[in-house]
Amino acid sequence: xxxxxxxxxxxxxxxxxxxxxxxxxxxxxxxxxxxxxxxxxxxxxxxxxxxxxxxxxxxxxxxxxxxxxxxxxxxxxxxxxxxxxxxxxxxxxxxxxxxxxxxxxxxxxxxxxxxxxxxxxxxxxxxxxxxxxxxxxxxxxxxxxxxxxxxxxxxxxxxxxxxxxxxxxxxxxxxxxxxxxxxxxxxxxxxxxxxxxxxxxxxxxxxxxxxxxxxxxxxxxxxxxxxxxxxxxxxxxxxxxxxxxxxxxxxxxxxxxxxxxxxxxxxxxxxxxxxxxxxxxxxxxxxxxxxxxxxxxxxxxxxxxxxxxxxxxxxxxxxxxxxxxxxxxxxxxxxxxxxxxxxxxxxxxxxxxxxxxxxxxxxxxxxxxxxxxxxxxxxxxxxxxxxxxxxxxxxxxxxxxxxxxxxxxxxxxxxxxxxxxx
Length: 422
Fold this sequence. Notes:
Blueprint: H1 3-16, E1 25-28, H2 41-51, E2 54-57, H3 64-76, H4 78-81, E3 86-90, H5 94-97, H6 105-108, H7 117-122, E4 124-125, E5 128-129, E6 132-138, E7 140-144, H8 145-150, H9 159-174, E8 181-184, H10 191-203, H11 221-233, H12 247-255, E9 259-264, H13 267-272, E10 283-287, E11 300-307, H14 314-324, H15 327-337, H16 345-348, H17 350-355, H18 358-367, H19 374-377, H20 381-397, H21 404-419
Parallel strand pairs: 1-2, 8-9
Antiparallel strand pairs: 3-11, 4-5, 6-11, 7-9, 7-10
């Protein structure tokens, strides 16, 4: 029996089982009940049928920053935090709330070993496993396959190749018009720009953000050269408004047929293939390009599930997390909700790969994915990331050709922060 049939049989059996054990109610944050965006609702319902326990969903705010504030406030108040059992966490939030989360190591029986190791490393603090990965993202390069074929150009493996191909195809496709560009990416001030920066620093030079001693030193010759190079793209192969684009506005720019290449997240693939997409059947996907410092490596992103250390039912809550992150449930969500599994076994199985070549692309990207330094910077990560992205965005959008003054000022600011402790 194939892996897909075996795992879907498990899902079906879970939905049919009931347990005579004493039922409890868990309170969970995982989307809004009844909403199409609640990607864990059907999975939770199968667990309810299998165990006899019940789950009450707590709706989260719409904005991700507000969601983090909600979780920090809820988990930090002893008089009310015990009401919340299982929480949904962005990969970069775990370090902010890890002190309030249960160490799942006592409940997993080694289940964490079946996930990509880099994803597990993000959730470890002082040896404790504070969450398990639910689904994952990785930075990818999208391209117009039809246009590369039309102009006899290969899929670029390096940024140098991309620059050349982008300029040549852009010139050929414009035909006197100026609304077609070689490259779009997220360069507005925000976490998305930090992700791009980590990728550029890894392949073009300037990284890592945090050195072995825990210091953030950014004013280096390598990073200055990398930023000057990226700035040279703007107005030549990338539109001037790229410094105002986030991942979604960049996706729309690309999907409208206005760019040859786009760096974005896997979600953009399924949207490019919808029936009403003008690019249906015309898009290819590959790993982000490499450079002088090594092959391209996309930044890892994604979401996790953790258990409140103050939960009245820690063992049952941990069982729900293990169910949500299990191989059978991840397969179900991959098939029916286009979510990327965090388990290598679901990418290498030929039956899974037969569903779509896209799984193989994501798998290749996840194998070498880079973690952002949220674990090293702990409570300071979002501030460091925000300041870094804000200042780089200002440099990219401004007229100053040399980033040295900006980077030096940033180093002074971050050194002062570090003296107070990350």
